C-alpha cells in the first residue's frame, strides 16, 4: 500500500514538474508583454502587474496540470469581459465625459473600432476604398489598422477560436451559460443554427447599400455596456431600446436558461464570418471514432451548437467550432482532442494540445492583460480616492 502511495506521489510530482517547465515560456512572454519591457513606475502599477502576471500564469499552469482546457480558459475569458467593460467605459468617460458618442464626434471619426464590424466593411472597402466606420486608422485607442492586424493574425492561427480566446464580449454569455446546473430550455431546433449566417448576409448587404455599419447602428447588444449613440431623438431612443433588449435577451436571459452561448452561437454575424476562417486555421478539434461511444455528452455541453449527431458521424465538429475545449474536457472516453492539421490523428496528442494552447492562451493573455492591470489600478484608485477615473 505504501509503495502505491509513493508511486502516486511520484507521478503527481513529475506531472507538476512537467507543467511547471511548460509554463516557463509563457511566464517569460507574459513578463515582457505585461510590463512592456519597462519597470512599473509606482506602487499601484507594481501591484497590478504582479497580480496580473501571477493570475495569468497560474491559470496556464492549471490548464496544463489538470488537462482541463475550458475550465481555466473560461475563468480568464469571463474576467476579461468584466475588466474590459470597466476599463473601456472609464476610458470613454475620461475622453468625452460619457459612454454616449455625439454625432459631431462620429463625424470627427473618434469612435473606437470593434472587431464585430469587420465583415461589414469588406464589400464597401472593395467597392469604394472606404472604411464605413467613424474611426481613425492609426495612432489612437482601438484604431482601425491595429484591429485589422490583430484580427488577421488571430484568424490565421486560431480561426473561429477568436470567439473563445479573444473576443472582448464573449465572456458575458459564457458566464451566464454556466450559472445553472441544468438548462431550463433543453432543446433548440437545428434550423436556428443557420440564423447567424442569415444575420451576417443581411448586415453585409445592408451595410454595403447604406455605406453604414447597420449591425452596429441597430442590432449590437453590447452597445448597452460599452458605447452608444447619444440619445437625442426618437430614432436614437429606439436604437438604445433595441440594444438593451437584445443584451438582456441574447446575452443574459437565454444563455442562463439554455446553458448555451446564444449571442455567439445564434446571432453574432462576426462569429458566423469567423466560421469560414476555421478552414485556414492549422488547428481543429478531432474526434477519434474508435474511442467514441456516442454518449452525446459533447453535443449537450457544446456552447455554440458545433457538435451534432451528423458531425459525430463524420468524425469532426461543425465549421462553427470555437475551440473552447469544453467538449474535450467533458468527453468520458477521451475521444476528442486538439489536433494540428496534417499531423497524426492519434499520436502525440499532448504535444498537439501544447502547440494549440501556447498561441491560444497567449492571445487571450495579450488581449486581457492590459485590461486586467488597468482595472486593478482603477479599483485601487476607487478605494483611495472614491473614483475609478484617472486623476
Structure write-up:
This protein has 391 residues and is mainly alpha-helical. The protein has one domain (2-385). It has 17 helices and four strands. The strands form two sheets. A two-stranded parallel ribbon has the order 1-2.
Shape designation: globular
Number of strands: 4
Whole-number total of structural domains: 1
- The chain-level mean pLDDT equals 92
Structural class: mainly alpha
Number of helices: 17
Helix percentage: 55-70%
**Unreliable segments of 5+ consecutive residues:** none
N- to C-terminal separation?
A: 63 Å
User: What topology, given as strand order, has the largest sheet?
Assistant: 1-2
Radius of gyration: 22 Å
N to C succession of SSEs: HHHEHHHHHHHEHHHEHHHEH
Largest sheet: 2 strands, parallel
Strand content: under 5%
Keywords:
two-stranded antiparallel sheet, 4 strands, 391 residues, globular, mainly alpha, two-stranded parallel sheet
Give the structure's gist in a few sentences:
The chain has 391 residues and is mainly α. It has helices at residues 2-35, 43-66, 69-96, 103-107, 118-128, 144-158, 162-165, 170-176, 195-210, 214-218, 234-258, 262-266, 269-277, 297-301, 309-314, 326-330, 349-385, and strands at 100-101, 228-229, 283-287, 336-340.
Give the topology, please.
Elements: H1 2-35, H2 43-66, H3 69-96, E1 100-101, H4 103-107, H5 118-128, H6 144-158, H7 162-165, H8 170-176, H9 195-210, H10 214-218, E2 228-229, H11 234-258, H12 262-266, H13 269-277, E3 283-287, H14 297-301, H15 309-314, H16 326-330, E4 336-340, H17 349-385
Parallel strand pairs: 1-2
Antiparallel strand pairs: 3-4
Helix pairs in contact: 1-2, 1-17, 2-3, 2-17, 3-8, 3-17, 5-9, 8-11, 9-13
Amino acid at each position: 500500500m505504501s509503495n502505491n502511495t509513493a508511486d502516486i506521489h511520484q507521478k503527481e510530482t513529475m506531472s507538476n514538474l512537467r507543467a511547471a517547465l511548460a509554463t516557463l515560456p509563457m511566464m517569460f512572454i507574459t513578463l515582457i508583454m505585461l510590463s512592456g519591457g519597462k519597470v512599473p513606475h509606482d506602487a499601484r502599477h507594481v501591484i497590478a502587474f504582479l497580480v496580473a502576471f501571477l493570475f495569468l500564469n497560474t491559470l496556464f499552469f492549471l490548464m496544463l496540470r489538470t488537462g482541463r482546457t475550458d475550465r481555466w480558459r473560461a475563468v480568464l475569458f469571463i474576467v476579461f469581459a468584466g475588466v474590459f467593460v470597466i476599463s473601456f467605459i472609464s476610458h470613454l468617460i475620461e475622453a468625452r465625459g460619457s459612454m454616449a458618442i455625439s454625432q459631431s464626434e462620429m463625424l470627427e471619426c473618434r469612435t473606437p473600432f470593434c472587431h464585430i464590424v469587420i465583415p461589414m466593411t469588406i464589400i464597401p472597402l472593395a467597392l469604394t476604398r472606404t472604411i464605413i466606420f467613424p474611426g481613425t486608422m492609426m495612432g489612437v485607442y482601438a484604431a482601425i489598422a491595429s484591429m485589422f492586424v490583430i484580427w488577421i493574425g488571430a484568424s490565421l492561427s486560431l480561426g473561429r477560436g477568436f470567439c473563445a480566446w479573444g473576443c472582448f464580449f464573449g465572456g458575458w454569455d459564457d458566464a451566464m451559460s454556466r450559472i445553472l446546473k441544468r438548462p431550463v430550455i433543453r432543446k433548440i431546433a437545428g434550423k436556428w443554427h443557420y440564423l447567424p449566417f442569415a444575420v451576417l448576409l443581411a448586415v453585409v448587404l445592408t451595410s454595403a447599400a447604406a455605406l453604414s455599419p447597420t449591425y452596429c447602428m441597430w442590432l449590437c447588444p453590447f452597445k448597452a455596456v460599452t458605447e452608444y449613440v447619444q440619445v437625442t431623438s426618437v430614432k436614437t431612443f429606439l436604437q438604445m431600446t433595441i440594444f438593451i433588449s437584445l443584451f438582456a435577451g441574447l446575452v443574459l436571459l437565454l444563455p442562463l436558461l439554455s446553458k448555451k452561448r446564444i449571442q455567439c452561437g445564434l446571432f453574432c454575424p462576426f462569429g458566423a464570418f469567423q466560421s469560414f476562417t476555421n478552414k485556414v486555421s492549422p488547428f481543429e478539434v478531432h474526434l477519434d471514432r474508435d474511442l467514441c461511444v456516442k454518449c452525446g455528452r459533447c453535443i449537450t455541453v457544446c456552447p455554440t451548437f458545433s457538435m451534432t449527431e451528423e458531425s459525430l458521424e463524420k468524425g469532426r465538429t461543425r465549421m462553427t467550432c470555437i475551440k473552447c475545449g469544453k467538449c474535450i474536457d467533458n468527453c468520458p472516453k477521451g475521444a476528442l482532442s486538439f489536433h494540428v492539421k496534417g499531423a497524426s490523428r492519434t499520436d502525440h496528442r499532448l504535444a498537439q494540445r501544447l502547440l494549440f494552447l501556447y498561441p491560444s492562451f497567449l492571445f487571450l493573455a495579450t488581449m486581457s492583460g492590459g485590461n486586467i492591470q488597468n482595472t486593478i489600478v482603477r479599483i485601487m484608485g476607487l478605494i483611495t480616492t472614491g473614483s475609478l477615473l484617472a486623476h
